[in-house]
Fold each of these.
Amino acid sequence: MNFPAHFALSSLLGIAIWLIFLLVGLLLAYLVIRFGVFHGLRAHTRWIDEGKDRRRDTHEPYNS
């Protein structure tokens, strides 16, 4: 291999590695955000349900 071909191959390899790390980072960020939103909504639903008046009919629990 001459120098320019070797340089082109190494730069393509560097770009491919950078893209792989970028995709893995974006996937991890998506999973962390999804995990946080899911557990936040679940906790909020439990908090709302614990504040309901248990003596009333619970068919429409979020009406004021």
Note: The chain has a mean pLDDT of 83.
Amino acid sequence: MHQNPSLSFLQQRLRVVAVVALSSSIFSAAQAQNAPATIRLSPEDATRGLNGHQHNFDFLAPGVEGYNYQTAGFFGQRLRPYLASNAESVAYLDKYRRQKTIFLIDRLVAVGSFGVYGQQIFANGEAQYFNNTQKVAIGIFATSVLATVFINRNTNTHLQRAVTAYNTGRAQIRLLPRLRPTSIGLGTAPTGQPLLALRWTVR
């Protein structure tokens, strides 16, 4: 008996599809096994609110357990290598670095104005506490202190959102292999037509 050429061609196509799908499934499973864990901030840092403390964040790197926290650095620079693959996380981290830079400049302005005020006290031989230069220095210092409140309001939130975006992205990647079939094969319909058989396991 001669086999129908079109049926033979269809069977070959189904075999190719099965091999490609199975290879993709195996590759995705391997990626899932090697996928890094989430980044975890210290409990205190994870709950910082608006206008919270401005000291460096501490975090557990992906795959690290226990209490082996490391500092993220003043600008969050030690987190950047871990977040580099997530554009949304990097954008939030850039905002955090921007706010920390503005905060640093603001502190320098405050310290500088305070220094000018002190230098003017005995600048003319007699003690002076409210000459024109000192008035300007007091105004700059007061403005700097007030500006600090607005500068620091959302600074911590930017870094927290950077970590959250990274962790959310990792969770989505780990979900993809679960949507792929656990087994792939060939079957035959009652009419004799070849079928591609797929099976999923609920986990």
Note: Residues 18-36, 175-179 have pLDDT under 50 and may be disordered.
